[in-house]
From TrEMBL:
SMART domains: ELFV_dehydrog
Binding site for NAD(+): 208, 239
UniProt-recorded name of the protein: Glutamate dehydrogenase
Highest taxon listed in the record's lineage: Bacteria
Record organism: Sulfurimonas xiamenensis
Any GO molecular function: nucleotide binding
Quaternary state and interactors: Homohexamer.
Length: 450
């Protein structure tokens, strides 16, 4: 369909060098071909041209002072991409790799992911190229305060509600909330992922990882399979990875790997979850420390991974949970997984698989849950936090967890029935992209040209 190609070419011209954004856009636009052919209204309303342009992009300077008294300068970003379904919603990422294209791809994915949750949330994302690694607690606090000293004027409980992502967890949300409260003089649910002591929701910490495992469970159940007793690989060792590992244990599976940007752990007996939590959530240490307490486990540094591969995906497994970062799983990794009998990939991270790897999974017809469907449990539970804040109530762990599980089931059913409607029942990339897009596009049409 030349039309989709034209839009893609336009993006490359108008937003140069935004590689990750082109990748995310290409995947979505390709999936939309059958929908655009069947329903001319989307073309008449120029929905594709409108949806690829953020409603608003905010780029700002963040000045702060490090522990040596030196002034540091970082870039801050917030993309308010699409508000057809509700207030902009999406996390903040603090990582040196952050740039305009990375934030734009994340914001673009967030539009469709948030639509799939069935809840009233639009798509947004933000962050900074600030590197939290090696920073003292005071430096983290000063940076978060400086970041919020600009961001506060653009956000609000009913306009734009940020949360965490890579490098932003409960501690950073706390410092940013404190600064927002001071500057705006309002105590409101302007951020999610807050502490349970002052407005957070039970299960938000666990939600993305738990959700990715629930999604795998529903994909497998549909084929008469379960995770019980199955060996699984997980990448990363942050928030999403830790709670993926926890939920895998709840379901009787055996998670045998985790990783960070320096290397990976292979623990044949199953990852020691309490040790991992202590290392990462309390001591904030590197994975090299893991093997000191667990001598039977093996640590492999990135330099020793098989050439052109991510070591995690060379370990034979039944199911894989990419939970670190974008493009961590390439075609070689997909081939390794498939050759070793992997039948399920559920993405906790955003766009962890390259386009070639995605196509390999679709062609193999395995259970493949793309990030925007499989990791939607995090943002969905954030919206449950917003609901609790708005009604000044708090729900029990069991209530929120049950809602999360139901939302993940609904996303699976929606993506798979939509995929079947368009003739490819096992292609959840097609199903998730069309189902998410259709909801946002119909709302945009009904709300007029704004
Ligand atoms: N938190 C949430 O609720 C949600 C998160 N996600 C996605 O899940 C993924 C993980 O996020 P989260 O767990 O919150 O983040 P964390 O910061 O808690 O953990 C990130 C993990 O990924 C690793 N990692 C990050 N960048 C790289 C890299 N370039 N190469 C190798 N490893 C890397 C980190 O290792 P190291 O310490 O060495 O940097 C760390 O182990 C991201 O893609 C995020 O967008 C999606 C939905 C919701
Ligand atoms: O909880 C949120 O609002 C956002 C989570 C997020 O950043 C994501 O879904 O990628």
């Amino acid at each position: 369909m030349p039309y989709v190609k034209d839009v893609f070419e336009y993006l490359k011209r108008s937003s140069p060098s935004q590689t990750e954004f082109y990748q995310a856009a290409e995947e979505v636009l390709e999936s939309l071909r059958p929908l655009m052919e069947k329903y001319p209204k989307y073309r008449e309303h120029k929905i594709i041209e409108r949806i690829v342009e953020p409603e608003r992009q905010i780029l700002f300077r963040v000045n702060w002072v490090d522990d040596n008294g030196e002034i540091q300068v970082n870039k801050g970003y917030r993309i308010e991409f699409n508000s057809a379904l509700g207030p902009y919603k999406g996390g903040l990422r603090f990582h040196p790799s952050v740039n305009a294209g990375v934030i734009k791809f994340l914001g673009f994915e967030q539009i469709f992911k948030n639509a799939l949750t069935g809840l009233q949330i639009g798509g947004g994302k933000g962050g900074s190229d600030f590197n939290p690694k090696g920073k003292s607690n005071n430096e983290i606090m000063r940076f978060c305060q400086a970041f919020m000293s600009e961001l506060y004027r653009h956000i609000g409980a009913n306009t734009d509600v940020p949360a965490g992502d890579i490098g932003v967890g409960g501690r950073e949300i706390g410092y940013m909330f404190g600064m927002y409260k001071k500057l705006a003089n309002r105590y409101e649910g302007v951020l999610t992922g807050k502490s349970l002591k002052w407005g957070g929701s039970l299960v938000r910490t666990e939600a993305t990882g738990y959700g990715a495992v629930y999604f795998a469970k529903y994909m497998l159940e549909d084929r008469g399979e379960t995770l019980e007793g199955k060996r699984c690989v997980v990448s990363g060792s942050g928030n999403v990875s830790i709670y993926t590992i926890e939920k895998l244990y709840h379901l009787g599976a055996i998670p045998v790997t985790c990783s960070d940007s320096n290397g990976m752990i292979y623990d044949e007996d199953g990852i020691d979850l309490e040790l991992l939590k202590d290392l990462k959530e309390v001591r904030r240490e590197r994975l090299t420390e893991y093997v000191k307490s667990r001598p039977n486990a093996k640590y492999t540094p990135v330099e020793e991974y098989p050439e052109g591969c991510n070591g995690v995906y060379s370990i034979p497994c039944y199911a894989a949970f990419p939970s670190a970062t974008q493009n961590e799983l390439n075609l070689n990794d997909a081939k390794n997984l498939l050759a070793n009998g992997c039948v399920c990939v559920s993405e906790g991270a955003n766009m962890p698989s390259t386009l070639e790897a995605v196509h390999a999974f679709i062609d193999a017809k395995i259970c493949y849950g793309p990030g925007k469907a499989a990791n939607a449990g995090g943002v969905a539970t954030s919206q449950l936090e917003m609901q609790q804040n708005a009604s000044m109530s708090s729900w029990t762990f069991e209530e929120v967890d049950a809602k999360l599980a139901q939302i993940m089931k609904d996303i699976f059913v929606n993506a798979s029935t939509t995929a079947a409607e368009f003739g490819e029942p096992t292609n959840l990339v097609l199903g998730a992209n069309i189902a998410g897009f259709r909801k946002v596009a119909d709302a945009m049409i009904e709300q007029g040209l704004v």
